[in-house]
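Structure (tokenized):
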């Protein structure tokens, strides 16, 4: 070694190769982000805290993402299932929303004039969880209930909100404007989401229908002719109030025995204003879309405008179709009778009047009952005239019923062979 090489500075500045050999295990540990360590001459791969932290974060993110996606899927499932249960379409949901908005807007405009509003939980409490069912129809079900003050009521739970909620609005709007002994009282209502109900005063004797349509003569004769006559007069007075006694004329459009309720004294009360129409008192002719009413009671002009204009005279026609059934103790058209052999009761009774024969109706035991029945029949025949102009107003009907039978003339025979034929389960129809 020379002097230069032996100099310390020169030795430090001199380059020389250095080769480091590591084991295969250590190489893999290093490439995986770990550190090669020996512990008592045994190899150990130590993982840094940074690597552990990154791994945990990745697992946490993946877990949150999976849970979030699962929650979204579950929510979508229940939303789609709920929509499908209502109408199997998104459009139904939109229409229902619009209907709810229409009804809420109407109730807001009514202000203090609207009846008391109840929650659905209160309706359940009122009916003892719908324990006593009184009946059902296309509109829903009717239950017996009791208010907090122990007053008995009838709760009509509606199962659908048709159109823009028109029928529900009509029911609340028309009855809330009325106050008459022959009009049923609306005690309150419920409109809470999909839950809708109407609360009426309780009528112990139910509807007039069961006294003239059930085929049980004992039940029918239980009323007696004086009671039937007073019921006929009461219904006429109720209609007169609707047509002339309110600030707005109310046309019912569905007068029939099923919609006449009887209290404990058999005082009749007009109910079910779902098809009613409001119009100014001075207006007589109204415009409606399609045919409203029940087959067998609906006026000819409501079905076909060629018979005349739709007006308050349409209620007069329906009213007297019902009264003639009260006289005959049966439906004017019996759906169980063959079409070729059926006898239309108004035609049959008209012939007896023409020939001045005995009326031949059941239950007439004295002259007073005969006079009541004869007045009901003659006035009824006037009210079912085909031309609305030939029918009396409901005020004239009341006057004729309360007058003497000698002053009544037999009307000309209507040229219609029979009214619209009803079906075994005749119900309200609306033809757009």
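Design, position by position:
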């Amino acid at each position: 070694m020379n002097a230069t090489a032996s100099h310390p500075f020169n030795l430090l500045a001199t380059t020389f190769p250095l080769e480091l050999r590591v084991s295969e295990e250590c190489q893999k540990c290093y490439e995986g982000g770990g550190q090669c360590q020996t512990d008592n001459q045994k190899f150990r791969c130590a993982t840094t805290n940074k690597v552990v932290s990154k791994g945990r974060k990745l697992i946490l993110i993946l877990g949150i993402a999976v849970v979030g996606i699962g929650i979204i899927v579950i929510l979508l499932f229940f939303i789609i299932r709920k929509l499908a249960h209502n109408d199997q379409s998104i459009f139904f949901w939109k229409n229902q929303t619009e209907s709810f908005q229409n009804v809420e807007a109407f109730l807001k405009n009514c202000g203090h004039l609207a009846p008391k509003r109840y929650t659905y939980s209160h309706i359940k409490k009122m009916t003892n969880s719908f324990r006593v069912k009184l009946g059902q129809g296309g509109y829903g079900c009717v239950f017996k209930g009791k208010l907090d003050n122990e007053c008995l009521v009838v709760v009509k739970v509606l199962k659908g909100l048709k159109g823009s909620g028109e029928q529900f609005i009509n029911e609340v709007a028309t009855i809330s404007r009325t106050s008459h002994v022959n009009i049923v009282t609306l005690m309150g209502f419920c409109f809470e989401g999909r839950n809708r109900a109407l609360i009426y005063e309780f009528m112990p004797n139910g509807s007039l229908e069961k006294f003239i349509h059930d085929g049980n003569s004992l039940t029918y004769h239980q009323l007696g002719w004086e009671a039937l006559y007073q019921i006929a007069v009461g219904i006429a007075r109720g209609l007169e109030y609707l047509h002339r006694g309110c600030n707005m004329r109310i046309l019912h459009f569905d007068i029939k025995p099923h919609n006449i309720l009887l209290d404990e004294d058999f005082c009749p009360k007009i109910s079910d204003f779902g098809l009613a129409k409001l119009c100014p008192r001075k207006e007589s002719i109204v415009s409606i879309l399609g045919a409203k009413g029940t087959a067998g009671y609906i006026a000819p002009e409501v079905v076909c405008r060629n018979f005349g204009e739709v007006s308050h005279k349409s209620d007069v026609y329906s009213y007297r179709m019902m009264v003639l059934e009260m006289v005959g103790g049966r439906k004017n058209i019996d759906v169980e009778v063959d079409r070729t052999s059926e006898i239309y009761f108004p035609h049959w009774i008209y012939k007896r009047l023409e020939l001045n024969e005995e009326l031949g109706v059941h239950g007439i035991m004295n002259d007073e009952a005969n006079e009541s029945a004869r007045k009901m029949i003659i006035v009824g025949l006037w009210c079912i005239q085909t031309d609305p102009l030939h029918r009396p107003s409901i005020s004239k009907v009341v006057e004729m019923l309360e007058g003497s039978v000698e002053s009544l003339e037999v009307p000309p025979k209507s040229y219609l062979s029979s009214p619209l034929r009803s079906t075994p389960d005749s119900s309200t129809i609306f033809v757009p």
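Reviewer-requested clarification: DSSP finds 14 helices and 14 strands in the chain. The longest strand covers residues 140-146.
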